[in-house]
Amino acid sequence: MKAEIITIGDEILIGQTVDTNSAWMANELNIIGVDVLRISSISDKKDEIFKALDNAKLLADIILITGGLGPTDDDITKTSLAEYFKTILVQDKEVLNHIEHFVIKRKSSMNVRNIQQADVPENCKIIKNNLGTAPGMWFEQEGRIIISMPGVPFEMKEMMSAYLLPKLAKNTTNSSIVHKTILTQGCSESKLAEILEKWEYNLPDIISVAYLPTPGLIKLRLTAKGENQNLLENLIDEQIIKLEKVIPELICGYDSDRLEEVLGKLLIKHDKTLSTAESCTGGNIAHLLTSIPGSSAYFKGGIIAYSNEIKENILSVSKSNLDDYGAVSKQVVEEMAEEVRKLYSTDFAIATSGIAGPTGGSEDKPVGTTWIAVSNKSKVISKKFIFGNHRGRNINYASLTAINMLRKLILGK
Question: Do 120 and 187 lie in a common domain?
Answer without folding.
Answer: no
